[in-house]
Amino acid sequence: MIHIEGLRAKTGFAGNSLSGGKRKGFSIIHYFTKGEQNMRNKIRTYCLLVLFSALILQLQPNLASAANSDTDHTKSFPQIAVAAAGDSTTSEISMMAGKAPYYLIFDKNGAFLKSIKNPGQWSGRNSSSVVVDLLLQESCKIVIAGNFGRKLQHQLEAHKIEYYEREGIVKNVVQTFVAADKTPRQTH
């Protein structure tokens, strides 16, 4: 008789009385009592419980980040991006949206949030795709620049991002834009 982790098993070899002399090779035959069967069921239940607990723990960070995404107000409201020649709000608006050195990000009320170096500035013909990806990543639904190329215009329209052509100092243009956006519009 062999004890394997608390389970009893009888073993036999070829020619042995357990195999009846007909089978060749090694065989293991398990005989479980009712108590041992209950123990196996408890072990299975415990293993399943551990497995499901591990799955829940794996999903918990994802659920927590989804719940916390609503509390990040910088991402929950549409933001305004401005193509700029420099990284400050006193910079001039860049005349080329796709090749602008920087994008300045503002909240919907016109408060400056951050400056981002344009990853599409040196991307060649791919700059419009890189800029649109940046705008989507920053949750920008409005973009302002001096001029937009045809390819960039089509990609912005496809992603439902509004674009406006303006010239001047970034902070002045944003203040004017936000003030005009807050005034009630007449419907015809």
Question: Could you list some keywords that capture this structure?
Answer:
8 strands, Nucleotidyltransferase, domain 5, 188 residues, elongated, five-stranded mixed sheet, single chain, alpha/beta, three-stranded antiparallel sheet
Summary?
This protein is of the alpha/beta class. It has helices spanning 34-68, 73-76, 127-137, 150-158, 170-182; strands at residues 2-4, 7-12, 27-30, 79-84, 102-106, 112-117, 140-145, 162-165. Helix content is 38%, strand content 21%.
Describe this protein's structure.
Residues 9-17 and 65-75 have low confidence and may be disordered. This protein has 2 domains: 2-70; 76-182, Dinitrogenase iron-molybdenum cofactor biosynthesis domain (Nucleotidyltransferase, domain 5, 2-Layer Sandwich). The strands form 2 sheets. The chain has a 5-stranded mixed β-sheet, sandwiched between helices. Helix content is 38%, strand content 21%. Helix 4 links the parallel strand 7 and strand 8 (162-165). It has 188 residues and is α/β, with parallel strands linked by helices. It contains 5 helices and 8 strands, in the order βββααβββαβαβα.
Number of domains: 2
CATH domain topology of the largest domain: Nucleotidyltransferase, domain 5
Please report the total strand number as a whole number: 8
CATH structural class of the largest domain? Alpha Beta
Radius of gyration: 34 Å
Mean pLDDT: 77
Order of helices and strands: EEEHHEEEHEHEH
**DSSP strand (E) fraction?**
15-25%
Unreliable sequence segments? 9-17, 65-75
What is the percent of helical residues?
25-40%
> Mind describing the biggest β-sheet?
5 strands, mixed
| CATH second-level architecture of the largest domain | 2-Layer Sandwich
Measured distance between first and last alpha carbons: 95 Å
Helix/strand-derived class?
Answer: alpha/beta
